[in-house]
Amino acid sequence: MESMKQRRTIRRYQEKDVTPELLNELMEIACRASTVGNMQTYSVVLTRDAAMKEKLSPAHFNQPMVKKAPVVLTFCVDLNRFSKWCEQRQAIPGYDNLQWFVTGAVDALLVAQTFCVAAEERGLGICYLGTTTYNPNQIIDALQLPKLVFPITTITLGWPDESPEQVDRLPLEAILHQETYHDYSADDIDRLYAYKESLPENLKFIEENKKETLAQVFTDVRYKKADNELFSEVLLETLKKQGFC
Amino acid sequence: MESMKQRRTIRRYQEKDVTPELLNELMEIACRASTVGNMQTYSVVLTRDAAMKEKLSPAHFNQPMVKKAPVVLTFCVDLNRFSKWCEQRQAIPGYDNLQWFVTGAVDALLVAQTFCVAAEERGLGICYLGTTTYNPNQIIDALQLPKLVFPITTITLGWPDESPEQVDRLPLEAILHQETYHDYSADDIDRLYAYKESLPENLKFIEENKKETLAQVFTDVRYKKADNELFSEVLLETLKKQGFC
User: Fold this and answer.
1) What share of chain A is helix, strand, coil (3-state, %, to 5)?
2) Residue A121 · residue A3 · CB < 8 Å
3) What is the pLDDT of residues A140-171, one digit of tens each?
4) Nearest to B181 among A1, A89, A146 (CB)
5) pTM value?
6) In chain A, what are the domains?
7) What is the distance between the alpha carbons of residues B13 and B161, in angstroms, rounded to a whole number?
8) CA–CA separation, A95 vs A87, rounded Å?
9) Residues of A (169-198) whose Cβ lies below 8 Å from B
């Protein structure tokens, strides 16, 4: 529990390797996570090879963790394996649709997070790469993913070579709704974001980006509407290409 | 680690309550999970009230856990709170699209699974309800979810009143690919599914359902193509209704 309470994302790693034995042990634990109908509609692609990291790097906007971490893991929705099994057993699969993309994504993400909790418990550090769904087509090419397989998230993994401060979170009141969703009043928003907005690192963030508010750093610099819409188009096209809609 | 290795899904619970203090502690831990840009694009709706469980029950095809568990938690993608904050801070949000539905789903599922691992470590039992994305519109109505909020998974939670056997998993070789995705040959499929197909409970499953193969139980009884396609349509319509595409 303590490693879960104290967790930090780790972006810098020691040269030290993560042994195949440890990696397999953690992956076995991860596969104990809940899975729809015990179908295990996911696959994980392990990257250790420097040339493969080089290939993946642009898909993740060349974030340095990809090339520097000893291990990169790409967690994929996988309805290919299950469908192949069906076809080989006189059964007609029907998993080439949006519902099973989402169901497979749930499966894959429960495995990913179970892996991460177990890895952190062992002292390893991880970083999630949200870029995975921005450039899925590049990842599909690099990892040779067939139809009905789709990369949903990526983590970099290694022994920590930094010990960053733990970052802030919104108060629990902002997240947890009792019985029904209680929509936020203007006062609620002010109260719930007050602590985040008061933090020196966030004030610095506004100044560095020459913005008036912290929210503007998100909307005008980090996650812009035009980019989001472009990435949505790519995502939809790639879902079609992989046979999910 | 031991509770992760030994985990089982629990569908029967004692009458004993889960205290608000314990629930909040576990939720605080869950919120330490990684989140895109520290935006926390999720909300959780807590159901304890019997009348609310009654309302949710049909959306989950009346699976008995919903009414019998002391606690039901619906994990939602939430871009409403963040967008409201942006609007109140002279920032124009652009999160009403498919990319942010998927990004929010990643966020919400990492929180859900962290919650479950922590809960199981404390001796609680959980069951995921995959029905959440089959009938999202009914859940949206019951929990009064506004635009840009979408239920992605549900768990039932309580103190275990059963101790089921641990179920099988595919060998790790089936899941983990080295460097690139290695597509499955006919021999691979036979080898990887052999253990699952040999299990007495699965042989019984074929007989009870009067099928020739285990795969046919999945395709003809449990997760049928026509149902999957209908649920995909509902999912897409509900994504549109909630403003994600």
Assistant:
1) 55, 15, 35
2) yes
3) 999 999 999 999 999 999 999 999 999 999 99
4) A146
5) 0.98
6) 2-164 (3.40.109.10)
7) 5
8) 12
9) 169-170, 172, 174-181, 183-184, 186, 189-190, 192-193
